[in-house]
Design a protein that fits this description.
By secondary structure, the protein is an alpha/beta fold. It has two domains: 55 residues, Multidrug-efflux Transporter Regulator, Chain: A, Domain 2; 122 residues, Rossmann fold. It contains seven helices and eight strands. Strand 4, helix 4 and strand 5 form a beta-alpha-beta unit. Helix 1 packs across helix 2.
Length: 192
Amino acid sequence: MNDKNIYYSTRQTARILGLSVGTVQRMVSAGALEAYTTQGGHRRILASSVRHYCQARGVPGAGQSLAGDQVCIIHGEELTEPTLQALARMEHVVLVSHPLELTGLSEDCTTFFIDARLRWLDWPDLHRPLGWGPRARFIVYNSQSLPAEQRASVSQHAQLHAADLSAEFIAGYLLGIGAQTTPPDIQAALAH
């Protein structure tokens, strides 16, 4: 995939450049990196901008991609702010609250948690949206909110999770797939 269509989160960019999240945010504000802000207030930084920055400054890893499995959480407004903040602090987690934010995530994300309450998804025809690869796993949470017929249809393409997501649940999932080797301090993340 052309890196003109790939975007990184601020945390992913910080990991690639070996900088703090705050430094990357200041670089975006100063125009050193090209980015846009999602409706949910998250920055998405153009991968080609990161590559150009690295090449211009001789930064090692200019062509580096992110290691490990990325978990994409496609959510609506129902997730609480403390939960969103805790999830945003986790490595390997990408938060998406608007369809345009899905651009460029197909190769980075291997698991998609999708809220069944989202109105902008076409639930009757939920297959492999946007050409996401065959390796991707789909988990539809809040699946009890779907009518029984839709649940049966969606279950052919995705795993169903009846409840809402929590930071603890995602942390456990990351540990289970080996994307994280130590449990994050969820209580500290929720306290911020």
